[in-house]
Amino acid sequence: MTTPIAIMGAGAVGCYFGAMLARAGHAVTLVGRPSHVDAVRRQGLRLQTAAFDEHIAMNASTDASGVAGAQLVLFCVKSTDTEAAGAQMREHLPPGALVLSLQNGVDNAARLQAVLPRQTVVPAVVYVATEMAGPGHVRHHGRGELVIGPSAGSEAAAQSLAAAGVPTQVSDNAIGALWAKLVLNCAYNAVSAITRRPYGELYPAPGIEQTLHAVADECLAVAHADGIAVPGDVHAAVEGIHRTMPAQFSSTAQDLMRGKPTEIDHINGYVLRRGDALGVPVPLNRLLHGLVKLLEDGRAPSQPA
């Protein structure tokens, strides 16, 4: 059975999962920027992976009305745009539509649920390495699984995603899993952005291994103080990222290289805000956040006297 599905915020992550669902026969509509939408309308979305390189036909729209009638929405906008994008699509969604928040950070689902009271909003943890290689062209570098929170529609959504080649697990501790992902983002995103290096070049570099683990320790201390049970061996995951996604630049690095605002306020910035509120010192997260904000500002550096 096919399901009407919308992708709100058709960047690299949304396009990858949307293309996988469309490839499996679902009616998918991408909502994104004009140049991207025009390319998809002309020739379909090009999904380039290690296993295949295909143009996949699907609907595309530049307007939030493109989500109309969708029973499942993959919400993939930047964390800074959560409330605004949610409000834009609110009047177009049928009551009871399931909205999965495939976003960086840990509080997006709660923020979005406040904007969409008639829908069920569920947090999702994304483990995929992708990039936009041009309008209408997404390149997949590795992984591609999801962990989603429980709801009346979560199991059915997980089955549809799994059947489309997206391994999906429903977890009662999705917030803990989001924190586990946040720790990885805090460790790698800013360092990748500051150095403009992919993950595979970071961990082996002198001194970087210890720094990444120290950042992770700060995050875990904040999570513990906040009563969050972070599942799995986070330090093993920190060690593994450079092997499973060696060619991947962090989303923060990609944003900076394209001259776009980053989500650093919702990554290291979130940890430092919670750390300050809970009395947990987070000097490395504070430093990384501040350095990315300086780069994001884009002003020319002062010249020495």
Secondary structure tally: strands:
10
CATH superfamily of the largest domain: NAD(P)-binding Rossmann-like Domain
* Helical content (DSSP H or I, runs of 4+): 40-55%
CATH architecture of the largest domain: 3-Layer(aba) Sandwich
Distance between the termini: 69 Å
Average residue pLDDT: 94
Structural class: alpha/beta
When the domains are counted, the total is 2
Structural key phrases:
305 residues, alpha/beta, Rossmann fold, N-(1-d-carboxylethyl)-l-norvaline Dehydrogenase, domain 2, ten-stranded mixed β-sheet
Question: What does the model show?
Answer:
The chain is of the alpha/beta class. The chain folds into two domains: 4-172, NAD(P)-binding Rossmann-like Domain (Rossmann fold, 3-Layer(aba) Sandwich), CATH 3.40.50; 175-297, N-(1-d-carboxylethyl)-l-norvaline Dehydrogenase, domain 2. 45% of the residues lie in helices and 19% in strands. Strands 1, 2, 3, 4, 5, 6, 7, 8, 9 and 10 form a ten-stranded mixed beta sheet that branches. α1 (12-23) links the parallel β1 (4-8) and β2 (27-31). The N and C termini lie far apart (69 Å).
